[in-house]
Amino acid sequence: xxxxxxxxxxxxxxxxxxxxxxxxxxxxxxxxxxxxxxxxxxxxxxxxxxxxxxxxxxxxxxxxxxxxxxxxxxxxxxxxxxxxxxxxxxxxxxxxxxxxxxxxxxxxxxxxxxxxxxxxxxxxxxxxxxxxxxxxxxxxxxxxxxxxxxxxxxxxxxxxxxxxxxxxxxxxxxxxxxxxxxxxxxxxxxxxxxxxxxxxxxxxxxxxxxxxxxxxxxxxxxxxxxxxxxxxxxxxxxxxxxxxxxxxxxxxxxxxxxxxxxxxxxxxxxxxxxxxxxxxxxxxxxxxxxxxxxxxxxxxxxxxxx
Length: 306
Fold this sequence. Notes:
Blueprint: H1 15-25, H2 54-64, H3 81-98, E1 120-123, H4 124-127, E2 128-130, E3 144-147, E4 151-154, H5 155-159, E5 173-175, E6 180-182, E7 195-197, E8 204-206, E9 211-215, H6 220-226, H7 233-239, H8 253-256, E10 260-263, H9 266-304
Antiparallel strand pairs: 1-10, 2-9, 3-4, 5-8, 6-7, 6-9
Helix pairs in contact: 2-3, 3-9, 6-9
């Protein structure tokens, strides 16, 4: 079974104009029926990956999946919205596994073209400070929660109502824009509990059961994606307290802030965060397209069988 999937677009109209168009966008090494995407929309220099890398091929697969090619080619399979979304998710998973050094290495398995320096390793406590500010004056009334699936969101959006109230949030931590929050509640998708960044653009409060910290001297988007990887899980397993509740991970604060963080140059941090965020937005876009198609299908079925 082939390890790639390609979309098919059927072209109709004036044959000479179609032939001219296909010749203009063809991959010169393959010929008519293929597409050199750079002839249509050149790849930004900042997104060029190291030549020959696994992810270079993976990204090429993503590009080829939306290119028109000759329907007469044998072995061509048609990729629908759901399949394309799953492919993007698999690419993102692969990038998260390989864009951060592991097993004591000082360089990742793959990286952007032009970056060769070894990465530094810093302790979380050297780039972050624990937030201890309490909501004693009740300056903030909105309570946030940290979800493994949705990130930091308003409690009322997650539970359809507020769990906390003005009588018990005086002892809650204040969470400001771009602060990070660690939720020790474990789940299948977050076996050590999720760490997310407040991207709501406003301040709120969080239960003291959460660990809140603000960062410095590191790109927050890069660090946010680092915490979506599993790189830091081994540290948590090794340093976590035994006998913890089955639904919560337990680790002492001083040990938590000893967590090693791999740190490349500021520019490489920025590019990693930008690439993964762009890919994530594409996945969300295709998810919405799929939901819209499902709604259309449901509506049509309801109207066709009255």
